[in-house]
């Protein structure tokens, strides 16, 4: 996009039929930018704008903006100069802001009228008194000059025209818009050079006034508003992107946290299952060990009882009782038991030999037994759940009853 610094803005003003539209088309290298035809009535009813981009001799891209205006002194009496002036004033500023580089007052050779000198007054009324410093008088229908007649000669033929040219700083140019190709291009390029020289003479500035400044301020304000709106829009988009990125990051983080927590939960459950399995195995092993221990204890008790029985039998055999021992009976814990003490009258006779109780001869024999440890066999036996069950009970020489341990020691019976 070409900046306003590289844009030249021109306004074509003149009487209806003088060739404003054709001159604008020639400058813009176009045949249709503006509607042009030979007519006594104005074809251009409103201001029209068109642009042309080109490269200057320095290789810099530039733009030429031309504005065609409704014609003054229209043959249609309903279109007065005041109406045309108001219409131009209401439209031109928006089209040429921030200002005009050149006003081209278009006059047709051969049909100049004295009232056309008032065109400068119209320009002053619309744009202000200083606008004439930016005016160039452009003569169309150059081919209508008499043979050997110069443009200056033609200007000097009409004092009103000479006054108009003098008011515009004697800046003039003649063109034949019927030309084509290079001849027309050379003419238009020469006119653009004249416009550029005038701009340089005006310190490189364009014409502006309070209205242009107001419009320019309005345009700049609108530009700032659009830029601010664009910035807000861009910032909103960036903020939305940031929010979306943060939301995606948050969701990603939450998903990662859920994944970590799920993995931790899985590990805890796995560890719990392992602990429960280990505990179950430990309990199972404990039960097995207890069963083995109980079985071993029962086996030891059985072996101990067998050993005690064998020891008792051997002791009785040693005492000469042989196999005539009565069966072991359980009375109280650690209490001696005898048929007499239980109220049973069981004489020791051959009739009771089936009970394996000692006969009187055995009893009398056992009465004398005990010399080895000095005790007297009482005829009773230990009745207990322990290893002493079934051992013979003896009475000591000084009283007290006892039984003999497998190690040959006395173990007195508590009463």
TrEMBL record:
Database matches in InterPro entries: G_AIG1, GIMA/IAN/Toc, P-loop_NTPase
Superkingdom, natural source: Eukaryota
Keyword Nucleotide-binding: yes
One Pfam family here: AIG1
UniProt entry keywords in alphabetical sequence: GTP-binding, Nucleotide-binding
Stretches with biased composition (Basic and acidic residues): 264-305
Molecular functions (GO terms): GTP binding
Region annotation Disordered: where it falls in the sequence: 217-236, 264-311, 392-415
Domain AIG1-type G stretches: 5-216
Protein family per UniProt: Belongs to the TRAFAC class TrmE-Era-EngA-EngB-Septin-like GTPase superfamily. AIG1/Toc34/Toc159-like paraseptin GTPase family. IAN subfamily.
Protein name: AIG1-type G domain-containing protein
């Amino acid at each position: 996009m070409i900046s306003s610094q590289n844009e030249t803005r021109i306004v074509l003003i003149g009487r209806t039929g003088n060739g404003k539209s054709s001159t604008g088309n020639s400058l813009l290298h176009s045949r249709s930018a503006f509607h042009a035809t030979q007519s006594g009535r104005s074809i251009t009813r409103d201001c029209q704008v068109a642009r042309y981009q080109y490269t200057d001799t320095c290789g810099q891209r530039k733009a030429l903006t031309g504005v065609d205006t409704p014609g003054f002194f229209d043959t249609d009496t309903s279109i007065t100069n005041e109406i045309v002036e108001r219409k131009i004033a209401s439209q031109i500023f928006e089209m040429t802001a921030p200002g005009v580089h050149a006003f081209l007052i278009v006059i047709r050779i051969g049909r100049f009228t004295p009232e056309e000198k008032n065109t400068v007054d119209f320009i002053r009324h619309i744009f202000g008194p200083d606008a004439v410093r930016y005016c160039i008088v452009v003569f169309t229908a150059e081919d209508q000059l008499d043979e050997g007649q110069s443009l200056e000669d033609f200007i000097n033929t009409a004092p009103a025209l000479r006054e108009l040219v003098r008011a515009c700083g004697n800046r003039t140019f003649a063109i034949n818009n019927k030309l084509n190709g290079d001849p027309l291009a050379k003419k238009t390029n020469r006119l653009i050079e004249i416009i550029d020289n005038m701009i340089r003479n005006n310190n490189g500035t364009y014409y502006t006034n309070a209205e242009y400044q107001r419009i320019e301020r309005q345009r700049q304000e609108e530009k700032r508003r659009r830029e601010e709106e664009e910035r807000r829009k861009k910032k909103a988009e960036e903020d939305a992107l940031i929010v979306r990125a943060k939301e995606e990051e948050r969701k990603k983080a939450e998903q990662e946290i859920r994944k970590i927590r799920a993995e931790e939960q899985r590990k805890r459950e796995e560890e719990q299952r392992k602990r429960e399995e280990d505990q179950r195995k430990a309990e199972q092993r404990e039960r097995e060990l207890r069963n083995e221990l109980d079985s071993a204890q029962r086996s030891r008790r059985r072996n101990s009882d067998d050993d005690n029985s064998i020891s008792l039998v051997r002791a009785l055999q040693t005492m000469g009782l042989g196999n005539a021992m009565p069966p072991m009976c359980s009375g109280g814990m650690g209490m001696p038991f005898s048929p007499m003490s239980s109220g049973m009258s069981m004489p020791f006779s051959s009739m009771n030999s089936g009970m394996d109780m000692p006969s009187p001869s055995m009893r009398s024999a056992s009465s004398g037994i005990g010399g080895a440890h000095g005790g007297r066999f009482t005829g009773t036996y230990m009745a207990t759940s322990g290893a002493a069950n079934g051992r013979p009970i003896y009475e000591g020489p000084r009283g007290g009853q006892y039984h003999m341990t497998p190690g040959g020691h006395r173990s007195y019976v508590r009463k």
